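General statements about sequence and structure are easier to judge against a single worked case. In the encoding step, the backbone of a single protein was reduced to a row of integers, each denoting a local shape. The record that follows shows the chain in one-letter code together with its fold in token form.
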Amino acid sequence: MSTTSIIVVAVVVLVLVAIFRGRGGSHGIDVDTATEEDIPRLLMGGHKIDAIKVYRRLHGVDLKGAKEAIERLAAGLPPPPHG
């Protein structure tokens, strides 16, 4: 493989990484701007940790409270009320 080929491959990889990060990960949802409607999409896609992050940000609860709420949502139950 020539030096030019290696540079081209490296540039392509860097561009793909930048695009991947800009889309919010493999699920395409940015957890910093996600809404309540994104939580079920994250859960259905198997992104429980990101769903917990979004729930915490939106509801101002601690990690334990968000984890419990997301586990209830994943089980088809309503989230617990927060005070």
